[in-house]
């Protein structure tokens, strides 16, 4: 991509903080408050280079907020299809960024239909060849630390895919641990059967019931010697409180991933030097 098309809000290079006997990667410190900034910076820059100006996204919140910020930077129009259950704080932030918001209980399918009818770009990262690319920078930043295990909260798995691709460019893959909630766990449940299914989770951003990237994700986990983990609400709440007591304000998805570390240890998983991704800010 020609550098003149590169859009940036100075995303990336987030803090790596020691926390007891592991490390926390503070992706919640990105410009709009989540790791989505890395993916959107690359994806929207690519679209910018192609001269397209009308974009569509379906999102539980963070991706739409990030997309709106980069679209504003590029002078694009963004149509954001969001669930009626979207966090109010996220909705208010999205409104301030100037996106046209469409609230729908079928946000994913309606966004896809709208984009097709209007011939607009559907930004859904898991179906875009450029969706995972920006997340490779997380791997680049972590490589020099020689981590053996990485725990990632996962919805569709776009970030996990990009991170794995990034590590593989260096010829190395740490053990990758996919973390999902007991409410929505189509990928985690392939590896972890020890949980009680729930109807709700505090980790509300992990909503994807299907991932187009499933085959690639499962291969990365198996090839790396990692695993998938399903975490119940009680554990998420407990770890979230613990983080807050230690002055770490982050989203429940990050708390879920940290809870997965403790579950892995309880199950006898021999973890080495470990990093947990805190993927978003608390609203």
Characterise the protein shown here.
- It is a single chain.
- The protein has 283 residues and is of the alpha/beta class.
- Helix content is 37%, strand content 17%.
- The model has no long low-confidence stretch (mean pLDDT 97).
Compact summary:
The two termini are 35 Å apart. By secondary structure, the protein is an alpha/beta fold.
Helix- and strand-based class? alpha/beta
Strand order within the widest sheet? Answer: 1-2-10-7-8-9
Provide the residue-averaged pLDDT. 97
What's the architecture of the largest domain, going by CATH? Answer: 3-Layer(aba) Sandwich
Number of strands: 10
DSSP helix fraction: 25-40%
Most strands sheet: 6 strands, mixed
List the helices and strands and how they pair.
Layout: E1 16-19, E2 22-26, H1 36-49, E3 54-59, H2 62-74, E4 77-82, H3 88-96, E5 100-103, H4 107-118, E6 121-122, H5 136-143, E7 149-153, H6 158-168, E8 175-181, H7 214-224, E9 227-231, H8 233-245, H9 252-266, E10 274-278
Parallel strand pairs: 2-10, 3-4, 3-6, 4-5, 7-8, 7-10, 8-9
Antiparallel strand pairs: 1-2
């Amino acid at each position: 991509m020609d550098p003149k098309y590169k859009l940036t809000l100075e995303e990336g290079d987030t803090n790596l903080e020691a926390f007891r006997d592991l490390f926390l990667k503070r992706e919640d410190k990105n410009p709009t408050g989540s790791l989505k900034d890395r993916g959107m910076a690359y994806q929207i820059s690519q679209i910018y280079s192609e001269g397209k100006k009308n974009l569509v996204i379906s999102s539980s919140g963070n991706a739409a907020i990030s997309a709106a910020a980069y679209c504003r930077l590029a002078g694009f129009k963004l149509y954001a299809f969001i669930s009626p259950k979207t966090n109010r704080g996220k909705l208010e932030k999205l409104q301030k960024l100037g996106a046209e918001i469409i609230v729908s209980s079928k946000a994913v399918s309606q966004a896809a239909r709208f984009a097709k009818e209007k011939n607009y770009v559907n930004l859904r990262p898991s179906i875009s060849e450029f969706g995972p690319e920006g997340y490779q920078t997380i791997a680049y930043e972590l490589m020099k630390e020689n981590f053996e295990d990485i725990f990632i909260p996962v919805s569709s798995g776009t970030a996990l895919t990009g991170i794995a691709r990034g590590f593989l460019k260096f010829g190395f893959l740490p053990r990758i641990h996919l973390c999902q909630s007991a409410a929505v766990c189509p990928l985690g449940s392939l590896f972890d059967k020890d949980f009680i299914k729930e109807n709700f989770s505090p980790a509300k951003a992990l909503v994807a019931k299907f991932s187009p990237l499933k085959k690639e994700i499962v291969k990365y986990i198996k090839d790396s010697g990692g695993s998938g983990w399903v975490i119940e609400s009680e554990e998420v709440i407990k770890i979230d409180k613990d983080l807050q007591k230690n002055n770490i304000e982050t989203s429940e998805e990050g708390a879920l991933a940290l809870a997965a570390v403790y579950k892995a240890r309880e199950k006898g998983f021999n973890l080495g030097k470990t990093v947990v991704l805190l993927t978003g800010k608390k609203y």
